[in-house]
Amino acid sequence: MYQVLKNICFSVLFFITVSVWSQSASQVIQEAVAKSTDGSQPMASIMQDVERAAATASDSNKRALYTFLGSLTEQLGEYEKAATWYARAAAIAASPAPGAPALTSEELVLAAVRCSLSCGNNQQADSYLASIASTSSEETMAYYRLYKMWSWLCGIQSSQELLEPVTVLKTYATMDSMKVVRPPVYLTLWYLTGESEWSKKLQAEYPKSAETALVTGVAHMLPTPFWFFLPRDEVAVNNTASPTRSDVETSSPSGSGKSSSTGTAESHVVVKQQVGFFRSRDNAENLASRLRDAGFMPDISEEQRQSGTVYFVVTVPEDKDNSAGLRLKTAGFECYPVFADE
């Protein structure tokens, strides 16, 4: 899912070359990339080096390095940290470092919002959005409205509450001022309602988009929580190609379930398969019951986010022959691997 989010939101990509970054920022980042590539230093240590360099850098370079840290932690799935780095970069009033991507503060705020939503912290997302509510940019306002809608949806507790936001989204789908975000609007409507109209519109109007790849099954949602925080209509659960879930169930992994990027052999050992990620213990218990009926031995654990929200994680231990994931999918359960800690 992370790749899809990158395509349907402001994409923050960094091409690490001397020509792209100012000399001081370039040196720090190239060194970080080299160390992460050859595995000579743990990723956590590499990021600490970048953070230390940023602490003594000029404002322009500090902004660039904070943005890089945001991009890096986002790619690692550490969305809470990524949101903080993007927000800190946005707060620095400085011109871009020579040759660096000329991201505006509003674009950086939107990146912080995206990451806040990805870790289920819609209250923080709303706080960031409030800082750009009076933007004069039509494009930024389109993303503001879309992200505000996603935040609203993340706070909904049941599919019965979908009528009003779906009505607003259908209005957005027809507005010229929202054209820049029309593909994700169509995708959201398809995901929430399961109505084929939105899938057909995507394929007809945006045949090469990432959203179309999703609705046609060419691409699949990767492990990131965002979409799975959204409630869905019963028709959508039955008709779309996404994993079956109820209320705000998610079959994507929590933050603790992401793979490590340190390059160590241990970090790539799959210890269990994550099958559900819920706000409701009842939903977690229901899924665990279905898993037991299918012959699996599920576990339920709690995970508390910085926002204070407690989630219930449903996992199944990996087999000695690493066949648990295949058996789960064969039995109709979507799952994602959880790797051993560093």
Q: Would you give an account of this structure?
A:
The chain is α+β, with helices and mostly antiparallel strands. The protein is built from 15 helices and four strands. Strands 2-3-1-4 form a four-stranded antiparallel beta sheet, covered by helices on one side. Strand 2 and strand 3 (310-317) form a beta hairpin. Helix 4 (59-75) packs antiparallel against helix 5.
- Low-confidence blocks of residues: 1-23, 241-267
Average pLDDT confidence is 78
Q: Strand portion, in percent?
A: 5-15%
Amino- and carboxy-terminal Cα gap: 24 Å
Order of strands, widest sheet: 2-3-1-4
Biggest pleated sheet = 4 strands, antiparallel
The level of helicity is: 40-55%
Which structural category do the helix and sheet elements fall into? alpha+beta
* Rough outline: globular
Order of helices and strands: HHHHHHHHHHHHHEHEEHE
Number of strand segments = 4
Question: Rg from C-alpha positions?
Answer: 21 Å
- Continuous helix count: 15
Comma- or semicolon-separated keywords:
342 residues, alpha+beta, globular, disordered N terminus
Write a compact overview of the structure shown.
The protein is of the alpha+beta class. It is 49% helix and 8% strand. The longest helix is centred in the N-terminal third of the chain and has 17 residues, at 59-75.
